[in-house]
Design brief:
293 residues; alpha/beta; Glutamyl-tRNA Synthetase, domain 3; three-stranded parallel β-sheet; three-stranded antiparallel β-sheet; 10 helices; binds glutamic acid
């Protein structure tokens, strides 16, 4: 009988060290860890620190000690995104070479003013699933000569995906396999709702979407387990995987934990961190119970 080599299951927990981990992160980390153990696979840790203004070594150290306190062990070495900008740049260059991205010069303030002026007339500007206004078409519609002229100045710019061209290049509709707590089965993507997403920022040589697909491929991740807040972002990830010829992992988007106000827990809003629960004497076993595991 011919043995078909099976890929070793690989799971990852990928926090950003821009604040203390809270109960929602604990749920994500424990699910990844336990699902990896059950599948006889590996549990990897990735530090998503491309935003060097908000990520700090202290928050990173906090992640390691919180996860160790939870009793989780991960495979070394930990992949730290800030050490791999060259890999993201290489992926970006391949998209630039095929004319699938364009330099975007509008500042956040200019976009905001444009949207406000438009909406002041009683119309509504289209927004993405996270509620962010879609990027205006100005930069996409620039001529090649104008683009080159602007690039030759030292004007700050990002790189954005030309969604229409990207979809045409990808061909037919794309799908992913989902086993999480929301819609399950084969899910049809809808990347167009995100508009021309940013792939490299003016203040960082990558973006979340670009780094995450490159890293999942480099780390040979077979199962992406993360919160339902990233469910719709999977459409962008499948599109980028297709354009960059990267493998397709399975996806499992788990339930989110809500705070007393009914909103999802958030680092930026200062929801109680794991270290604080620990200080108050909660044990890892009690914590598991508290988050419904
Ligand atoms: N770094 C992301 C976060 O902290 C998670 C990304 C992912 O799991 O794909 O929300």
């Amino acid at each position: 009988m011919i043995e078909i080599p099976r890929q070793k299951p690989k799971f990852r927990f990928a926090p950003s060290p821009n604040g203390p981990l809270h109960l929602g992160h604990a749920l994500s980390a424990i699910l990844n860890h336990d699902m990896a153990a059950e599948a006889g696979g590996d549990f990897l840790l990735r530090i998503e620190d491309i935003d060097q203004t908000r990520c700090t070594p202290d928050f990173e150290a906090g992640i390691f000690s919180d996860l160790a306190w939870l009793g989780l062990r991960w495979q070394e070495p930990v992949r730290r995104q800030s050490e791999h900008f060259a890999a993201y740049q290489q992926a970006l260059q391949s998209l630039i070479g095929r004319g699938l991205v364009y330099p975007a010069f509008l500042t956040r303030g200019e976009v905001k003013a444009r949207v406000a002026a438009f909406e002041a007339e009683g119309r509504s500007w289209p927004r993405d699933p996270d509620g962010t206004p879609l990027y205006p078409p100005d930069d996409r519609e620039r001529s090649e000569t104008e683009r080159r002229r602007l690039l030759a100045t030292d004007m700050k710019h990002a790189w954005r995906l030309d969604m229409e061209k990207a979809l045409a290049t990808a061909g037919g509709p794309l799908y992913w396999e989902e086993s999480g707590d929301g819609e399950t089965g084969i899910v049809r993507t809808d990347p167009a709702v995100w508009g021309d997403v940013v792939l490299s920022r003016s203040d960082a040589p990558s973006s979340y979407h670009l780094s995450v697909v490159v890293d999942d491929a480099v780390q040979k991740i077979t199962h992406v387990v993360r919160g339902l807040d990233l469910f719709h972002a999977t459409s962008i990830h499948r599109l980028l995987q297709t354009l960059l010829d990267l493998p397709e992992p399975l996806y499992h988007h788990h339930r989110l934990l809500l705070g007393a106000d009914g909103n999802k827990l958030s680092k930026s809003l200062g929801d109680t961190g794991l270290a604080e629960w620990r200080r108050q004497g909660l044990s890892p076993v009690e914590l598991r119970r508290r988050i419904g595991l």
